Amino acid sequence: MMSSIRTRILAFLDLAHCTYKVEGNTIITSAAVLAFTEDHLSILREGKPERLMPYEKLNMDKILFLLTAQTDKNPAR
Q1: Smaller CB count within 10 Å for the chain: N or C?
Q2: Local structure of 27: helix, strand or coil
Q3: What pTM does this model have?
Q4: Contact, 56 vs 62, CB < 8 A?
């Protein structure tokens, strides 16, 4: 299950033209760090507590939104 979720997330990041880096079982984006373990997905975002989400309960729409969310809520004009 981990590999299929990882593949879907990477495909989405490519389609969304998001910059990311893959280091083993970790995907690093500007908005979050995703770490894939055998049992769950760990999501780290700046200023937020770590989320540990079992693969069976993942909400892919929510995860993809978090990955593409702007880190700067008040962009300079």
Answers
A1: C
A2: strand
A3: 0.80
A4: no
